[in-house]
Each structure stands twice: as C-alpha cells, then as structure tokens.
Amino acid sequence: MEGESRNIFCVIQGPLLTFGQGPNNSIEGFNAINTVIANVAQLERRRIKFVVCTWRSDEHLVAEAPFFPAPNILLESPYPLDVDHRFKHHYAVKQGVEFLKERYPVKSSDMVVKIRTDMKMPDSFWNWLMTDPVSPEKLLVSELYHPFYLGDFVFAGTCSVLDDYLSVITGSYPKLYHPGIAFDLGLKYFSLFDHRKRLTNPLVNRIAFSFFSGRLSATWEKFIDAKLVTLPVAIWNEILWRDKPMDGVIKPGYFHFTPGPYNHRSTNKESAGTYRYFVQAYREKLARLNYGNLTLYALSLLKGLWPLLENMPDAAVLALDYDDGSLAKYLASKGVNCTRMKVDPAAPRLETTLPVNTILFFGLIERIDDPKEFILQCKRLLPQGGRLIACISYHGLAKEFILRITGRKRTQLNRMSENGIKKFWTQEMATRLLQEQGFKVTGFKGRGRILYLWNTMILSAVAE
C-alpha cells in the first residue's frame, strides 16, 4: 500500500489539565486546552475524523474551552490501580477507537492514530502519515528502547493492528502496575505473537534482571523488524510536549534505564552494552517509578497503609524515615495531616514540639543498633491511646526456608549488608518488641509478594 492514500482517524487522549513527569510541570498542572485546539485545527484542515478522550474530572474545562466547532469528547475515567495511569490511558484509547468505529465507516485497513492532549503535533507529522509509511502489519510507536520498551507518546496502526494492540494491553494479566512498567507494553504486545511467553510477574522480573543480553537483544530486534516501526527522528524532535521541543526534553537517561532512542540498527555488541546499561540503571532506579515520585517500597506500603489512615480522620501523623521522604510527602499531598522527620539510623533522636497522636515509621527498625530505645522514644512522643504504625522488612520461617533451598540466602545477606540492615525481623519478634515497650499490637498486614513471603510487614499498635 506504500505510496497510496488511506483514511486516517485520530484519538486525542489524556487529561486537559496534566501533571507529573514532563516539561513545564507545576503544582497547578499544565493546561492542555490550547494544545488540543491547535491539534484539532490541524485535523479539521485535513478532514481527519477524531475524538477527544479525557477524564470526567475535566468536565468543567471542556465546558469552558473555546472549541469551534465542538469536537466529539468522551468524558470517561476508569480507575484501575496502575503506575502512571498507563492502563487507564490505553483503556481510554480503546474507548475512543470503538467510538470512531460506531460513528464513522472505519475499515480494518484504515489508520488510527493516538496522540496526547498535551503534545502539539507538527505539520510534518501529518504530512508523513499521509504518505502511508506504515506497513499494514506493523504498529507505529513514538520510540523504541532496549529491551521491550515501547514509547506510547504516539502510536498508530491500521484499525485491526490497533485493535490487537489495545486488546492485549487492556486484557492481559498482570495489569500495568508491575515494577517492569518500562517494558510492560512491549512484553504484552510480544506475547500476542509468541503464545509460549505467558506473562507473569516472575517472567517480567527475570527479563528485568537477565544477564543474557545478547539473546534478548536479538529477539527484540527480530520483533522490531517484523511488527514495529518508529517515528523518524526529525519528526520526533519537532513535537512540542507542553510547549517544549521533544529533543530538548527526552535526553539520554531521561527514563532512567536507557542511553537514548533505539532508532538505528545497532550491532550485537552495542545492543549488549545498552542492555548492561539498562540492568545497572534499572537496579539503581528501581525505586523511582513515575508515581508521584514514590519508591516501589513506598508504593507497596501505601496500599497497606491507606485503609489504616482512612479510618483515622483526626490523626496527626509524624512520619519517620531515613530516605527522601517521598511517602510522607505523598500522604500530605492527599490530605493526610502528616509531618515528616528524617531520622539518622546511626543515632536516632526524636524531638518535636508538634502535637502528635500517630507515629508512622518505615525502614528504620532493621537499621538501628538499639531498637528498644527507638521504640521508647516513639512512646514518649505519644499520648496514652496514641497510635504507632510500624513498617518493617519481613522475615519468617517460610521465607527463610525458600531462601535456603533456592540458594539465595547468601544474596540476601549481601544485600542486607549493602543496605545497612542490622537484623532480620519476624512477626513474633516485632510484636514482642512493641509489647515490651508498652504498646498493645492491634493489627498485622503483610505487603509485597505472596503469602508468608512478604517484603514488608505493617504492625499497628496503641500506646498503653
């Protein structure tokens, strides 16, 4: 079909008030309405049928926007739990495609393009699409990285290809909240063509930490040749993301796991080097997913802590930590009366003049030489009946047994030393520690992994 014209349809997807990682980011967010209007004008001029898919929370912005003529707007806002709303975005795009097929005579061979609400597409992008550069069997993505990373800023394909892509992304398990979010999209799309690759958390983890980079890179390159195509670099650089050129925003290391776009043929040696870079950076940055700047550890804890904090509307929380305080900042941003105190594990001293009725700490007990004194300091700050929420790395008999029979005990001991952990704690040991210092333990919850192999335990207690 190369050289022939084909019908093009477009889904403009995303919030009208955008937040999160990206240029021109502020507390107030970036108002994308003018960007949407500019893209709509491009589409109207080319007579491309389109739909805008945004969130219900932006309904007031839609009503106030100076759209003329008024575009088709879907105010849909699914609420799945996922990192950076990736599943939500794809779900909304799928709704947009279904809307276009119901409203217009969209053929399976027609092209459907997804663009973002906060990205202004240049004339060169639409002119390039009009030349029909994408083979009918391929999916167009904005960028490709090693390994199995698809850039979803822009994606397009024939209606049948896009249906397949969106179906496998929104329908496969696990949903897009896995730590492997960076390559989750690529793995899911790959699984559509290789049914031996059933996507499971262990599989994604193995790929994330795999050292067989040469074989993995070769598999990825074959898949690219057969099923994927990227935007030309020149067009990519002209796209404005929140009014900033992409070549000034997406630079080497931006995503923390790649030295740059994979828009060229690389040798196996270069591919292996890229992947080694990925493994190193991924390990260093694994705790930095794009979810309010939360760490993976904090994100896992949040799921367990939220039900406790929701039931304590009058809580004045003192959050103790030793890192960057991302969890405390996130809780405060969500309306929790939370004050953060950074604690030095080598010499913990707790002093505050603020009224406190709840103390929350995480990652401290296992790093402190005298945990009894630390718990006593917590108790001195709390009134009688005050709440203590302790988040401690979990270690139990089942976990110890699994580590020994799998030969991973030595690895755990090495990581323990590297991370400054002084001691492993079981549920019984942590419960006894709190009870001996004058607390009554009222609840226990394990977080992360599977039953009895948890990463973390959360104990709630009351000062007696």
TrEMBL record:
<dbReference type="InterPro" id="IPR029063">
    <property type="entry name" value="SAM-dependent_MTases_sf"/>
</dbReference>
<protein>
    <recommendedName>
        <fullName>Methyltransferase domain-containing protein</fullName>
    </recommendedName>
</protein>
